[in-house]
Specification:
Shape: elongated
Helix content: over 70%
InterPro entries: ATPase_inh_sub_z, ATPase_inh_sub_z_sf
Organism: Sphingopyxis italica
Number of strands: 0
CATH class: Mainly Alpha
Largest sheet: none
Number of domains: 1
Pfam families: ATPaseInh_sub_z
Order of helices and strands: HHHH
Structural class: mainly alpha
Distance between the termini: 37 Å
Protein name: Aldolase
CATH superfamily: Domain of unknown function DUF1476
Number of helices: 4
Strand content: under 5%
Length: 108
């Protein structure tokens, strides 16, 4: 039974680690996405930093990416930036790849 318990603990540890890694990558992706949107809106460096943090916070509103996409679409439209949901989703995918790459690089 001890071997089974050890194996179960190992799976639980791996699951917890995988969830933490995914959380960090998603938070990094959202920060990069916020910086991308801030650049399109012409924000100052201080405003960019605050906005990127706000985008990270927006992801806690509901599960999935729709809350972040809604925030970006609303803010970009309010700033008179012409952009489609497809462009935002493409940027989200690009920033996800970049965030994963940055995370992997930081582990080496």
């Amino acid at each position: 039974m001890s071997a089974f318990d050890d194996r179960e603990r190992a799976f639980e540890t791996k699951f917890a680690r995988d969830q933490e890694v995914q959380f960090r990558i998603t938070a990094r992706r959202n920060r990069l996405l916020g910086e991308w949107a801030a650049e399109r809106m012409g924000l100052t460096p201080e405003e960019t930093d605050a906005y990127a943090k706000a985008v990270v916070q927006a992801d806690f509103e509901e599960a999935g990416d729709e809350d972040v996409i809604r925030k970006l679409a609303g803010d970009l439209t309010a700033a008179s930036v012409e952009i489609s949901d497809a462009e935002i989703r493409a940027a989200l995918n690009d920033k996800a790849v970049e965030a994963r790459r940055q995370f992997i690089d930081s582990q080496n």
